[in-house]
Design a protein that fits this description.
There is one protein chain. The chain is mostly beta strands and 216 residues long. The chain has one helix spanning 4-10, and strands at 15-19, 22-25, 28-30, 35-39, 46-49, 57-59, 66-74, 84-86, 91-99, 102-103, 108-110, 114-116, 120-128, 131-132, 141-145, 149-151, 156-163, 166-168, 177-180, 185-187, 194-200, 203-205, 213-215. The longest helix is centred in the first third of the chain and has 7 residues, at 4-10.
Length: 216
Amino acid sequence: YSTIQDAIDASSSGEHVCVAAGTYPEDLLFGSHTLSVEGVDGSGATSVKGTGTGPVVYISGGAADLRFAGFTVSGGEDGYGAGVYAPYMDGELEDLDITENSCTSGSGCYGVGLYAYGPLLVKDVTVSSNYAAPVVASGAGGSVYGAGAYFPTSASIENLKVSDNYVSSTGVASGGYLYVYGAGAHFSSSSGTVDDVVVSGNYVYDASGSGAYVYV
């Protein structure tokens, strides 16, 4: 198939989509059937670069035993999981490098790199250099829940690295408010096992002047 999405659309439940090394300029939408999509040479050799018009990878609920593995994911722009958006996912995210995705158009940013909850397993995943800069009017409030990763409920995690993700208040008007709940990662009402997690080098930059307020 000429694109990964063409292969996903043509697949049947239980099949395995094997992706050769290279860079694929597209956004991916998983359907509701059981499926495995894997970059067979791993995340260091296989990239999905988004169009900048939404999440690069959108994995909706409805199917069991979904698997997405072996990719670098970049170039997304959205308020919810601009890199990988996987709400209600039953399956596995493995060997992913989620980097250089952004949220710059709305007042709220939720898991700019990765927004996921399960039941699912997140294994050998790096979330780095994702960027949140919400747009907030004077007198209003904006929020960032994990500029790197956001896990609002159940997820089992093995070897997760969240680093160098960045929140900026450049889009907050004077007199506006920005609430930051985790420049790196945010876990809320989470259940599941969490093992070997490193969160480092994430930061918030208040650039709006004395009339704006950032709460971390």
